[in-house]
Amino acid sequence: MPGFLDTPIEYLKGVGPQRGELLRAELGIATFGDLLQHFPFRYVDRSRFHTVREVNEELPSVQLRGVVTDIKTLGEKQGKRLTAKLTDATGSIELVWFKGIKWLVGSLKNGQEYIVYGKPSEFKGRVNLAHPELELATTWEAGLDATLQPVYSTTEKATAKGLGSRAIGKLTHTLLLTPGLLIPENLSQDLVHWLGGLGREECYRQLHAPKDQHHLDLATRRLKFEELFFIQLQLLKQKLLVQQEVKGHVFGTVGTLFNAFYKEHMPFEPTGAQKRVVKEVRKDMGGGRQMNRLVQGDVGSGKTLVALLSMLIALDNGFQAALMAPTEILAQQHFATISRMLKDMPLEVRLLTGSTKAAERRSLLTALELGHIHILIGTHALLEDPVRFKDLGLVVIDEQHRFGVAQRARLWRKNEVPPHVLVMTATPIPRTLAMTLYGDLDVSVIDELPPGRKPVKTVHRYDSARNAVFAFLEEEIAKGRQVYIVYPLIEESTKGDPTTNPAKDLKDLTDGFEAISRRFPLPKYAVSIVHGRMDQATKDYEMARFKKGETNILVATTVIEVGVDVPNASVMVIENADRFGLSQLHQLRGRVGRGAEQSYCILMTGDKLGNDARTRLGTMVRTNDGFEIAEVDLRLRGPGDILGTQQSGLPTLHLADLVHDQDILQQARAAAQRVLDADPELRDPRNAAIAGELAERLKSQAVWGRIS
Ligand code: ADP
Ligand code: MG
Fold first, then answer.
1. Torsion-angle region of residue 593: left (phi > 0), alpha (psi -120 to 50) or beta?
2. Is any atom of ligand 1 closer than 6 Å to the C-beta of 304?
3. Which of these three, 446, 466, 484, is where a domain ends?
4. Is-contact 449 455, C-beta < 8 A?
5. Which of 453, 440, 389, 433 has the alpha carbon at shortest distance from 415?
6. Is residue 594 lining ligand 1, measured as CB closer than 6 Å?
7. What is the pTM for the complete model shown?
8. Closest-lying ligand to the alpha carbon of 398?
């Protein structure tokens, strides 16, 4: 139902085609609704004034009232500027502009009283206001009678063409005065009441022209809630639909394979957490509905065993299983581990990656379609069209964050009845993000490490302490342990990013390798090197040597970041550690501490460090808890960066923010769940407003259909 809010913006009084185009192009405002959703990003308290004497450059902003005199244009070209003096009862301060000079010269009135708002800055020992907002005191007094004045984001170009913050505020004001304006309520009366009683339209009014701080707070909270509520409602509704409508293979039996493995071949007793998660998976797969489960477990928590046991259940029921990993190295390692664990069982386990040779690939694909292969392990090569299973019952996806929603969807097409899906991640996703991104998945957490593990000790050392660090490595090697030394090297995937310098990184790595080889010389020591630019065969060879304990030190890039498992390695040295993100550092640290010995992580940096880098290193030294680290990471980088924008799949939010509004998100999720529990079809007349909004949203996003 195209309503009033869908009206093109040029039809608003005072806009017209030209400004309409400008609003569209510069600010993405195409309709009345868009304008209303272009919320102020801050408010100026018009009731609070500073005096000139109080102004100092520590203050974030000041509002002054005074007389403008001495308007002067100074300088030439780049240095050209306009200055003026503002005087109140306590003194004078300089105002200065470097842009928009021509317009100001024409409009600034000498000797008149103005209201000025801006950020104090210091220039040559004196405080001034650069580019202040200003308005004649007389117009200011005749303005909106709100004390909190909205400030809107805009662009330089829009401002130059008369669409600055003020002008946008005026348009919004006009729109809010339009007779017949109707912003329909979309929450139930219960929820409205619970959120403080302001209706939806009233909230929009309060955001654009707040009565006072209290009303502004209530309105902001309610609109943020609303934003998050509908996302959660959609996710939960989606989940409900999958549960009701998407059939799943029923894996009713846990049979000979599972039992034989459990009793005879399993190399260790599963931890309580592993057992619990396998039980949850079993229950999902036995219930007749498609399983969509996310398993979060910190590095080293033993997710592989959970994957394997789950796959055996699929096999016991006559189906095939697939395990998909994000990198070639990891796929190979899963293949090696799982083949080893299953070596005495009558099962065909195969590996398919980008580098599988054509002939082998052909025979593999045929065997797969005939059902001769029971478990197929591989990279995203598994998603390609020629890969057809006879009967795929379960897909395990390791390190989900590298597989986007769309890729998940492709798997579905591999069978009529979709396979069960188990997503495993060692990147603990902050709860709130997980809720928004995977709100449609069930979640299990492996919150227990295998017995006998000692937490990794982490220290930060400056490059100047390198000799001491090397001496320490020597001691550890003398005890028979192995060492990783990791360098930042930009792999192919980030090629073209101008802020990185792959050639220099590669040189650092090879220089480092040479220095280490000199310090730890043959024949007493052996050092391996592995990086993403090497050919596969050499990489495999070097990795294998290290795994077998034939080399003491592995110098590498982040190719070893995910999943690589060498229990005897007990020291992780990370060079230029300030250049790594927190989750990457945590992943890398997870490569050690896998055996029973005390392990160490040494973060090496130069002595110049930025604030964020300090926080990252400090966090690493303080805690081993992946979830805590993920929360810090979220605060430092924001959700988009954490997930990688392309595949983040995060919904657009106008007001709410997943870092600061976690409490509102929790409430929105709980409320959405309550609504659906009581009224799954949203047929209760009291939920009519909610149902209406949801229907509108689903209409515009039909493609979401079967994805998760
Ligand atoms: P993740 O994939 O969760 O990072 P892995 O599955 O690679 O962890 O397991 C880490 C290490 O712990 C491996 O060496 C594995 O053999 C070992 N392991 C897993 N589960 C157990 C267990 N229940 N008892 C002892 N060792 C275990
Ligand atoms: Mg793993």
1. left
2. yes
3. 446
4. no
5. 389
6. yes
7. 0.66
8. 2
pLDDT band at 536 (very low <50, low <70, confident <90, very high): confident
Region 431-439: mean pLDDT is 73
Q: Which of 277, 278, 303, 305 should be mutated for ligand 1, with most atoms under 8 A from CB?
A: 305
Enclosing domain of residue 288: 256-446
CA–CA dist 242, 293 (Å, integer):
13
Least trusted range by pLDDT, from 199-213, 375-389, 439-453, 519-533: 439-453
Q: CATH no. for residue 13? A: 1.10.150
Q: Which of the listed residues 623, 647, 665 is the one where a domain comes to its end? A: 623
Quick check: 89 and 103 in contact, CB under 8 A? no
Q: Are residues 341 and 276 in the same domain?
A: yes
Angle subtended at Cα 494 by Cα 489 and Cα 500, rounded to the nearest 5 degrees: 60
φ and ψ at 282, to 5 degrees? -60, -40
Q: Ligand 1 centroid vs 449 CA: distance in angstroms? A: 8
- The total of structural domains in the chain comes to 4
What CATH number is given to the structural domain containing 79? 2.40.50.140
- Tokens coding 676: 């659906």
Q: Whose CA is nearest to atom 17 of ligand 1?
A: 302
Residue 633 domain-assigned (yes or no): no
Q: How far apart are CA 660 and CA 641, in angstroms?
A: 16
Atom of ligand 1 nearest to the CA of 306: 6
Domain of 286: which CATH number? 3.40.50.300
Whether the link from the prior residue into 523 is cis, omega within 30° of 0, is: yes
Q: Which one-letter amino acid corresponds to residue 161?
A: K
Q: Using an 8 Å Cβ cutoff, are 400 and 425 in contact?
A: yes
